[in-house]
């Protein structure tokens, strides 16, 4: 089968080659991949694992071999799944508890965007308790995690403020249903019960100064690449506030499938949208550049076979 593999001698360090068929463990399902999404974290891994690594965590496709333990969907089922690696290929193994069936009206491309970004948004939103009627701030709202966080917070009944990097991102993020879209926190005295931050740097400091008493910041990334010069005094006004380091793979991976199924149904019901560029998988290297250069809003998704 064809699949992508890192190779320092290949153009941009990535080659599309004939690879061995995946070999499933008893708890794995084999999926014929029809679409996969890219994550910023994978761009870092491509650099860290330059020789012989097969990238790809977020996949959607059709089950071709059910798990030997009998716990996965049957062959022919359309699914979304969170693989460990190897998803930028024609076939991949995924642990059966990290797979969910998708409704007929949900495209493979939309479903493929869900695993890392959707699960991070959904589970980071849960870190601060119920958000019904609460004020939630989402930084990096135009990003992969951000687009899901804005919409899921609205589904959960929060008042959502979205923070974007510039005026060019406002309209697309407003269209996701954010109550307010800002390009900076200067000038607002509003305080937030829950803040999801994937940007880091100075933005995380600004966020801390806008945390409500008893509120929670779930810091899940630093897309800016900058460390945050945070001080205790930045939390003045946020008595008993919490700063939590959130890692999606440190949450219960055995229930990934349940949460993926929940979000796939939200897409099917028209309550969750997945903006972002769609490209043929032969353009994977160009898509990497697109993500690296911050040219896209939402999720970059590659499709196999149209
Ligand atoms: N802890 C976890 O489990 C976990 C899970 C998923 C992701 N992550 C991490 O979380 C971060 C975000 O992931 P993602 O997939 O959402 O990335 P992404 O799709 O690239 O989105 C990044 C977002 O951050 C914004 N941004 C980047 N640099 C910025 C800056 N200097 N100032 C203001 N905004 C800036 C981008 O704005 P533009 O629209 O202008 O580009 C975009 O909205 C990454 O660091 C990723 O590695 C962690």
Can you tell me about this structure?
- This protein folds into 2 domains: 2-101 and 276-303, Quinone Oxidoreductase, Chain A, domain 1 (Alpha-Beta Complex); 118-249, Rossmann fold (3-Layer(aba) Sandwich).
- Helix content is 24%, strand content 25%.
- The protein is of the alpha/beta class and 306 residues long.
- The longest helix has 13 residues, at 256-268.
- It is globular and about 55 Å long.
- It is built from 8 helices and 15 strands.
- α3 crosses α7.
- It starts with a strand and ends with a strand.
- β14, α8 and β15 form a beta-alpha-beta unit.
- NADP nicotinamide-adenine-dinucleotide phosphate is lined by residues 39-41, 116-117, 120, 140, 142-146, 165, 169, 198-199, 203, 220-224, 246-248, 294, 297.
- NADP nicotinamide-adenine-dinucleotide phosphate (NAP) is lined by residues 39-41, 116-117, 120, 140, 142-146, 165, 169, 198-199, 203, 220-224, 246-248, 294, 297.
Number of domains: 2
Q: CATH homologous superfamily of the largest domain? A: NAD(P)-binding Rossmann-like Domain
- The helical percent reads 10-25%
Q: H/E order of the elements?
A: EEEHEEEEHHEHEHEEHEEHEHE
> How far apart are the termini?
17 Å
Radius of gyration: 19 Å
Relevant terms:
Rossmann fold; 2 domains; alpha/beta; 6-stranded parallel sheet; globular; 7-stranded mixed sheet; Quinone Oxidoreductase, Chain A, domain 1; binds NADP nicotinamide-adenine-dinucleotide phosphate; 306 residues; single chain
